[in-house]
Amino acid sequence: MDSTRSEVHLESARLIVRQLHRQDLDQIEAWRPSSDPLSNLWNIPRSTPLSRDIWFMLHRSDPTHLWFVIERQSDSQVIGTLSLREIVGRISARLGISLGADFVDQGYGSEALRLFLPYYFHNLGSQRLLLDVAATNKRAIHVYEKLGFRQTGCHYRDIPEHEDLSFLQKEKYGDLRPYFRQHFGRPQLLFYDMELERSEWEKNQIPT
């Protein structure tokens, strides 16, 4: 994937997907933390300008990762991030996507992925896209399935020890309790492994 280091600029009706620049990290740092206790499990700790400098220097030349931002066309606001990690030549990579708390439930995630997938499969020439998603994230799972991803397995992941899971006792979260477990005294959450094959994605494309 040597060609992936050239500048990327993809546009849709509302969004731009482009490579991550150092100043984007400052916008991301200013996002409002999510108030949803499920999202709080994975909130990224606040960072300093120096730590962001170091992170950017370490990651921009990593051949196994590519980092992008999702930018809103109307005001140039960075509203999300998109990454490829565990890149294996033109064979596969693992997708990561996240949106700031103020930008969810507006269709931005699915729009960004529909914009990015042609680039991934055609421009980069990759054959398979992998991802893992928390079983509790039903909204994201629905989006992935609509795009053609299929579940291939599952695994449990440790939850940070300091996280408070008492919210699960509330009635509104009752249907999510089966996705959590205790394993050797550590709380864990179920994740689904999903993948999208290029051949399957191409079958689902409507000619324009």
Would you kindly provide a written description of the structure presented here, covering whatever features stand out?
This protein is of the alpha+beta class and 208 residues long. The chain has a single domain (2-203), classed as 3-Layer(aba) Sandwich (Aminopeptidase), CATH 3.40.630.30. 25% of the residues lie in helices and 32% in strands. The chain is built from six helices and nine strands; from the N terminus they run ββαααβββαβαβββα. The protein has helices spanning 24-29, 37-40, 49-59, 108-123, 138-147, 198-203, and strands spanning 9-11, 15-19, 66-72, 78-88, 92-99, 128-134, 150-158, 180-183, 186-197. Strands 1, 2, 3, 4, 5, 6, 7, 8 and 9 form a nine-stranded mixed beta sheet that branches. A hairpin with a 3-residue loop joins strand 4 and strand 5 (92-99). Helix 4 packs across helix 5 (138-147). The longest helix has 16 residues, at 108-123. It is globular.
